[in-house]
Design brief:
91 residues; alpha+beta; two-stranded antiparallel sheet; 4 helices; 2 strands
Length: 91
């Protein structure tokens, strides 16, 4: 029996993905159109705001809170899927 690839496997996060590097670790977080709904819900539950509120910027810059959200989502995508926002903020 042939095995079909996992949906979304190999799909590029696109050119607007966030690449965040802290010390010797790096994470990639996809733009809103590529972020799984589960992660969008986690952001809303953890922060009270939608993911898009943290990445939209009228002046081309983002705030420290946005960096924490991006870092948190990157860690979740890189193997810590149960990491809560509160745990990430505490670190």
């Amino acid at each position: 029996m042939a095995k079909a690839p996992r949906p979304g496997a190999g799909r590029s996060p696109g050119p607007l993905a966030f690449h965040l590097r802290v010390r010797d670790e790096s994470w990639i977080v996809p733009p809103p159109g590529f972020l799984p709904i589960r992660e969008k819900i986690a952001v809303r539950m953890g922060t009270g705001l939608p993911y898009e509120a943290f990445i939209k910027s009228g002046e081309g810059t983002i705030g420290e809170d946005s960096l924490v959200v991006i870092w948190w989502l990157g860690r979740r995508a890189a193997g810590e899927p149960n990491l809560s926002f509160d745990q990430a903020v505490a670190q």
